[in-house]
Amino acid sequence: MAFQPPNNNKGQKILDELYQKKQFLLMKNPPPAQPPPQQVNDTMSPNQRTALQHAQQTSPGFYITQESSYGNLIIPVVPRF
């Protein structure tokens, strides 16, 4: 039996269904607004504080400070949906 590419109509139908489910879930549980900036505490080094403030001002993401074996001063937080 030779390989047959999937039917575009079937694939489009699946994508449409996924889009509708996504819209329904977003209406049911809207994403939270931009989280408040993390409180800067005294345990952070000046480099961590500067990096965290710069990232929060220039990026729509959310960052935390955490010790890293790779030398990263801040780590991005990626929510799971």
Q: Count of helical segments?
A: 2
Tell me the helix content. 40-55%
- Computed over alpha carbons, the radius of gyration is 21 Å
Which term fits the overall shape?
elongated
What is the topology, as strand order, of the major beta sheet? 1-2
User: Unreliable stretches, pLDDT < 50, 5 or more residues?
Assistant: none
The largest pleated sheet is described as: 2 strands, antiparallel
Average pLDDT: 75
Structural class by helix and strand composition? mainly alpha
Protein name: SOSS complex subunit C homolog
Biased composition (Pro residues): 29-38
Biased composition (Polar residues): 40-58
Pfam family, one: SOSSC
Short description:
Helices cover 42% and strands 10% of the residues. The protein is mostly helical.
